[in-house]
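ok here's the first one, seq then struct tokens
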Amino acid sequence: MAPRANWKGFLRLSLVTCPVALYPATSDTEKVSFNQINRKTGHRIKYLKVDAETGDEVTSEDIVKGYKVDTDTYIEVTKDELDDIALDSTHTIEIDEFVPRTDIDSRYLIRPYYLVPDGKVGHDAFAVIRETIRSMDKVAIGRVVLTNREHIIALEPLEAGLMGTLLRYPYEVRSESEYFDDIQDVKLTNDMLDLAKHIVEKKSGAFEPELFEDHYESALIDLINKKRAGAPIAAKTTPKSGGNVINLMDALKKSLATEKDAAPKAKVAKETVKEIAKETAKAKKPKKRVEGQREMLLPISGKGGKEATAKEAAPKKADKPVRATTRTKKAG
């Protein structure tokens, strides 16, 4: 099921207009998340909105926005007042200019969205705007209002649609000078640079995000599955430190030797992952089968001494931690 659109309105280039919908291009819903619970009762913690002075609970209809001007002084701003100053970009993404993609400093990038035609009409106008941007090999800059704030958005073709990336305003980007001014100007020898370049060459490859693995997420899933199954949790041993690097040239030489030894193993591991990915893609998905379904049926002690499966005892959302992973971090 496609996610819900974050915004719907119109995309306009001069007099060419079409209805569009904006969808999030990224998601955090697959990550393991936790609820806060009462250690003594096991019940979930519930938060209440209360008056900071009286301690009384406040209902939603009595809550308004306020701008703090002093310790105990706020300027109240109502929803109607905010609606009155709403801009045209609340309902329309107006393309203001076109710029080279390389001109956009990466520090200004916030998050990506997918922009698609909304409904059955307007596909021709959408295609005209998309192909115009593509043919010019530039990025279209416009404005859009999300969560009551106006954002700058950069639009560029992505296959049959458009990718829109929200951009920061200049006041949101800190100057690098306040951080870089104290960095020492050191002189490096050509030998050091040559060794470092050899290490980079050994670790170079194509960008393949499907081979990346979130190691912390995998560890969380493993921990939850073990606790669900009642397995013992072994304490993690702290690895011994290699000590401080005394000689930079020695460290570079050792690093290069290590990369040479690791390269053949890394190549085999990478090819193995690719083969697994291919076989998985070919396999037909069983109907309504959750990945890792067999592991979900681990016995869990229920009330009254009865045995219950994890699938029966846990809420539906608790199935996610059993997710198996065939990905591995991209090898050098």
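and now the second one, same deal
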Amino acid sequence: MTGAEWKTEWTLDRTYRSSSGEVRWAALGAPDAPPVVLLHGTPFSSYVWRGVARALADRHRVFVWDMPGYGASEKRADQDVSLAAQARVFGELLDAWGLAGAGAGAEPAVVAHDFGGCVALRAHLLHGARYRRLALVDVVALAPWGSPAYRLLGANDKVFEQLPTALHRALVREYVGSASAVGLRDGVLERLVEPWCGEAGQPAFYRQIAQNDQRFTDEVEGRYGEIRLPVLVCWGAADAWIPVERGRELASRIPGARFRLIEGAGHLVQEDAPAELAVALSGFLG
């Protein structure tokens, strides 16, 4: 395998049947190492974590998964892929992995990106999921969120589902590419775009946007002061999707939270500065 292939190779080799459809997942690292779970955001998949996951797997048991409706996981017309549903599914997976109800000191550490942050926060604050530590990377957690373009797509999902294939692909490429401050390599960009194309992928792209509503963060935003575990908030200094000021504000609302700025990185810190992010997370996770 060449160096370029190693950087783009990523396979989720296990399956879990969740309440919102089939979930694809994988685990890296020694089975007896401290567990870490990585959550992706939208419109991404666990693929964005591949470099960081491999780095962390040297000292941890790293769990990665594609949320229902994303990446390699199931996509279907009647599927609930809302943030509320994803938080429930996350709880189901923690239980299936034997990480739910773990004793003190044995809980998993959780690292979440984008709306994965909302998923992790909802699971913790609303459903009682227990974590050892929590790292939030450029997360969706504070209102208001969602760009004008994002809201336009969500409000007119049935119209955009009918776009010609080439036009839809071009739209998704432009949208995904804008998450990087330095630009994504063609192979990486195509890997992120491909799950949103085709008969199942195209409607799934607009479906997940239509179901992502700010009320899901509104329901937990007032409770961040209740969090009683070590929290690290990481943010790309050049994030054009969610301003750095949101990251600083989020850290200020969580007792004892630390804030870490990643210079030169956009919203997709995992792609723009994977080494810097891996170092920050390794130091925090211990």
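notes on #2: The first helix runs from residue 3 to 8. The longest strand covers residues 21-28.
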